[in-house]
Amino acid sequence: MSAISTQGLGKRYGSKWALRDCTIEVPEGSVTALVGPNGAGKTTLLQLAVGLTRPSAGDVTVLGLSPRDPALLARVGFVGQEHPLHRGFTVAETLKLGRKLNPGWDDALAHERVQRLDLPLDRTVGRLSGGQRAQVALTVAVAKRPELLLLDEPVASLDPLARREFLNSLMEAVSETGLTVILSSHIVAELERVCDHLVILAEARAELAGPIDEIVAGHRLLTGPRTEATAVARMHDVIRERHTERQTTLLVRANGHVYDADWELHEVDLEEIVLAYLGYGASRPLAEAVAR
Amino acid sequence: MIEFHLETRSGVPTYLQIVQQVRQAVRLGVLRPGDQLPTVKDVVGTLTVNPNTVLKAYRDLDREGLVEGRRGVGTFVAEDVAPLPPGDVQDLRSGLEGWIARARGAGLDDDTMAALFMDTLRPPAIRSVA
Amino acid sequence: MIWVGWRQQRAEAAIVAAMLAGLAVVLLPTGLNVASAFDAGHLASCTGARPSQSCQQAVDQFLVRFNGLGGLIAWLTLLPGLVGTVLAAPLLVSLEQGTQRLDWTQSITRRRWLVTKLGLAAAAAVVAAGVLVLLVTWWRMPFVRLQGRMDNSVFDSEGTVVLGYTLFALGLCTLVGVLWRRAVPALMVGFAGYFAVRILFDTVVRQHLLSPLQATWRADGPAPASAQHAWVLRQFPSDRLGHLAPFDISCAHGPAIATNCPSKPVGGYMHAVYHPASHFWPLQGIETAIFGGVGLAMLAFAAWWVHERVS
Fold first, then answer.
1. Cβ(A152)–Cβ(A53) below 8 Å
2. Which helix (H) or strand (E) holds B4?
3. Averaged over B34-51, what is the pLDDT?
4. Given a contact as 3+ CB pairs under 8 Å, which chains touch A?
5. Does C20 touch chain A (CB under 8 A)?
């Protein structure tokens, strides 16, 4: 079953489309990376999925239900951008909020996590470090025992150590409770070890979606003497072409086996594939600068 | 107990690196029959990887017959795997040392040696045709 | 959710409690002072329609003594507005900081969140208004017995209107803040709006809520009984039928200035348009219904807006 399934999903603010024509499936049990530059529609997609906002076009089903279905409230967890928390509450009071507002709350799990992560129960949230706040927000979302967890840029404002600790914490939660996770990020680097699925959003559209190992296996880098891409483009999807005076480099999504005597073939890592879809490094003019 | 490490830039998928490290450890006698592999949770805690990845690696190893999962207890090296005899390992090691000496004498630096070795090892389909 | 809603407005409730406590600290000693002066002067017997000479003197003495305080107390009419503004803050701050994204992604519905938070704010407003009215009414009792409570600056801190004002301020600040989404400026604008509406209502609208009474009486005789402690809107010398007697301003200083001034005032009667003391509760009721009703309507609209339009 799909954890999330969208069909032509779109959201408009005034005359501007924040998300458009989005048709993707996120399988249950996966850890999916939602990548794209700022303004690509990642936050909008997550907010539509969790029911914070309503679609302008198309539809979205979560665990088979409509996002605003009350039956779904206890089954989906969400950590918004900048980890919204009540700054004046202590950590203990924040957990109490979770307990009061969630019938399925696992208080033992919440306190065990807080203790393991050395989060001071009596300190107010406003006086915690960024990394600690992120961990508190994650604890509240996880102790609710959801089946699906959506995280909007959870590590964007964290230093590398805090980032690693957060992702570690998240992976432990996945191994303990078997949740489906979708996390959005504009940093691609660490996602490959943590995620097994990928959705790329650029300029309000979904450019690519699928399992990461299939994506990596299905893309190749072709290098060769300077030439036009037309011959290759007849057989495969050319995602990005780059020309220097004497050399041409093509990144292609292979339709079947790539076998061409004129080209040198290389495997491509995930980050390079994502950047290519986002338009980085092409010789053609770019529509929009990409945040790395 | 073995501890895994991950090379993120190697181009080798994570689960395969785990499989390879277990295979090597068993072949070289670092892991002996009956030894317990780290639990999924432990590996996740050390490497910050997707638990499904670890599960996939352990499943592959189980299918190979190298390890066996005991429900509720953990994953253990199979009783009937035989590591390479230490003598064989030593022979192979000396052979390599000899080759390295010859390559150095021919003027190859370490990186070129490694490239030559990997190039010879890799499947021909992705080798350059020039 | 009740604990969560309460905890989110704990600070503001404490501020309101502190304001009321501060008020009590000021009012209690002075009020006891006023009450004991009232008793010491036996002024209880001077509250009738035709006080004796000695009563007049005693009353005048009493009023002069506490005149300043009475004037200050009139400013208390801003307090319901302040209370309503402060109690509107928790919701607005919540929306500005985006913490509703935390609350709404737990397991409760938006509706329950809104009903609880706004319900608690309104309940706090009711309690605070009650305390305020009790305090001020008690303090002012001696003056009310001497002068009635229909005067503009007295009317609006007695009775049920205080509750109406508080709910109005709460509703107005909440609505402005929910539409504008910036808490502090919205609260300031809301309070300013409350102030403006109150002034307008006090000076222009209130008198028209009910038809006032009219009476004409001989200028050298007693005023009608219903005019005692009334709120007089207009009063002028008149003829027997109550029409305004012509009054030449140049005659104000006596015939020495102008030659055609009459030797005694024309008319000989006084006419007054007034709301008698018996209009107190009807006027209170209407004004409370207006302010309270509009306040609650604004709260309801703000709730709908947040339910439908906020993400």
1. no
2. none
3. 90
4. B, C
5. no
**How many angstroms separate the CA atoms of A10 and C121, rounded?**
37
The pTM score is 0.82
In 3-state terms chain B splits into helix, strand, coil percentages (rounded to 5) of 55, 5, 40
As a residue count, chain B comes to: 130
User: What CATH number labels A2-213?
Assistant: 3.40.50.300
pLDDT at C255 over 60: no
What is the per-residue DSSP string for C39-59?
HHTTGGGG-SSS--HHHHHHH
- The share of chain C scoring above pLDDT 70, in percent, equals 92
CA torsion sign for A194, A197, A200, A205 is: negative
**Is a pLDDT exceeding 90 seen at residue A107?**
yes
Domain ranges in chain A are: 2-213, 218-289
In a domain, B91, yes or no: yes
Farthest CA pair distance, chain A: 67
Task: Output the average pLDDT for chain A.
Answer: 87
Per-residue pLDDT reduced to its tens digit, C17-38: 999 999 999 889 988 988 888 8
Cα A142 to chain centroid distance, Å, stands at 17
**Which of the four pLDDT bands, split at 50, 70 and 90, describes residue B72?**
confident
pLDDT at B123: 56
Whether B92 and B68 share a structural domain: no
CA–CA distance, A20 with A57 (Å, rounded to integer): 8
Q: Do chains B and C touch (3 or more CB pairs under 8 A)?
A: no
Q: Distance, in angstroms, between A189 CA and closest chain C CA?
A: 28
Question: ∠ CA A225-A227-A229 to the nearest 5 degrees?
Answer: 125
Query: Hey, what amino acid is at C115?
Result: V
Chain C residues within an 8 Å CB radius of A101 = 1, 4, 103, 106-108
Residues B27 and B60 grouped into a single domain: yes
3-state helix, strand, coil in chain C (%, to 5): 70, 5, 25
> Which chains are adjacent to chain B, needing at least 3 Cβ pairs under 8 Å?
A
Contact by Cβ (8 Å): A36, A200 = yes
